[in-house]
């Protein structure tokens, strides 16, 4: 009798230390295979369906009840994605979505890593060669191209704003098949160029002043009064082509009254019977708007009859 009582007490002690397992929910897992999983009806909660057309796994997850009877009851990718009308999108986007080999960066954006983004048949297409092409009307005609070499619009315009905005339209050669109104800056000439529908027109940024005077030693001739800030670019001269005479000259910048003149270069130019030019590095080439440009002649040799001087200058800000 004693032994039976001891056995009963031991059993009660052991049973008293056992914890009850938490409630569990068990599902009868069913997997379907269909060319249109969202058309499958009567599937129970948590049933799986492999869509052979979309190559996506769907999960039965109805918002009401426990049976999938409508396309919206099926969730792609385990419930985080929804397929509707052939489009795949996140059910709830709370942060970032990454596609590729690395995690998305912060900032609520879509990162495409190592691939191209195509939104719609024509709406937005991006690739490494052409950049991004935007078709705002989805008509197949590109409206804007953001390419590695620039920004294009057909048709339209752009508003550049900011503290340091600029537009660079530099080319080394003219465009071969321009449209009416196309404009660019040809750095070879240099000049701005536009197409008027018939021929190329050049907007010259440099002007040329040329004069012929009778050489006279130690004389001065005011050439022109600068209408805007200018820069002397080159100076060329010649005395009696084929002759033997010469004349020494300086081009000078004077004040608004034509006095207090200073040479634009420290080196004078000896004008002979063949073309003569400045040394290629003018030390003080700037002419302030409203100031006069002066031709200063020095010593002459022989009996020069005519001195011709050509000055090329450009407008400055």
Description:
This protein is mainly β and 317 residues long. The chain folds into four domains: 31-90, no CATH class; 103-153, no CATH class; 170-204, no CATH class; 207-315, Jelly Rolls, CATH 2.60.120. Helices cover 5% and strands 40% of the residues. It contains one helix and 29 strands. The protein has one helix at 2-16, and strands spanning 31-34, 43-44, 48-51, 56-60, 67-68, 74-76, 81-84, 87-90, 97-99, 110-112, 118-119, 124-127, 131-134, 144-147, 150-153, 170-171, 183-186, 191-195, 200-204, 206-213, 220-225, 230-239, 246-253, 262-263, 269-271, 276-277, 286-287, 292-301, 307-315. Strands 11-12-13-14-15 form a five-stranded antiparallel sheet, with no helix packed on it. Strands 20, 22, 26, 27 and 29 form a five-stranded antiparallel sheet that branches. Strand 14 (144-147) and strand 15 form a beta hairpin. The longest helix is centred in the N-terminal third of the chain and has 15 residues, at 2-16. It is rod-shaped. Residues 92-109 have low confidence and may be disordered.
């Amino acid at each position: 009798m004693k032994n039976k009582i001891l056995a009963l007490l031991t059993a009660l002690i052991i049973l008293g230390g056992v914890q009850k397992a938490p409630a569990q929910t068990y599902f009868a897992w069913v997997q379907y295979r269909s060319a249109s999983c969202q058309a499958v009806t009567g599937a129970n909660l948590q049933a799986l369906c492999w869509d052979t057309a979309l190559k996506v796994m769907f999960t039965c997850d109805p918002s009401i009840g426990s049976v999938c009877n409508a396309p919206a009851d099926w969730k792609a990718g385990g419930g985080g994605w929804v397929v509707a009308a052939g489009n795949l999108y996140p059910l709830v986007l709370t942060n970032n979505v990454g596609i590729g080999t690395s995690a998305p960066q912060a900032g609520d954006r879509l990162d495409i890593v190592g691939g191209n983004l195509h939104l719609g048949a024509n709406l937005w297409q991006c690739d490494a060669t052409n950049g991004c092409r935007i078709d705002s009307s989805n008509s197949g005609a590109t409206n804007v191209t953001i390419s590695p070499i620039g920004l294009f619009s057909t048709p339209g315009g752009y508003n550049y704003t900011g503290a340091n905005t600029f537009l660079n339209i530099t080319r080394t050669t003219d465009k071969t098949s321009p449209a009416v109104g196309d404009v660019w800056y040809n750095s070879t000439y240099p000049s701005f160029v536009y197409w008027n529908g018939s021929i190329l027109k050049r907007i010259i940024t440099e002007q040329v002043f040329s004069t012929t005077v009778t050489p006279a030693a130690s004389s001065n001739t005011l050439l022109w009064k600068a209408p805007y800030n200018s820069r002397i670019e080159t100076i060329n001269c010649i005395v009696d082509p084929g002759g033997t005479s010469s004349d020494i000259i300086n081009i000078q910048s004077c004040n608004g009254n034509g006095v207090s003149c200073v040479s634009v270069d420290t080196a004078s130019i000896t004008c002979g019977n063949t073309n003569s030019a400045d040394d290629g590095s003018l030390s003080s080439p700037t002419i302030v708007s409203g100031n006069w440009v002066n031709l200063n002649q020095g010593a002459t040799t022989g009996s020069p009859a005519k001195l011709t001087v050509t000055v090329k200058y450009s407008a400055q800000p």
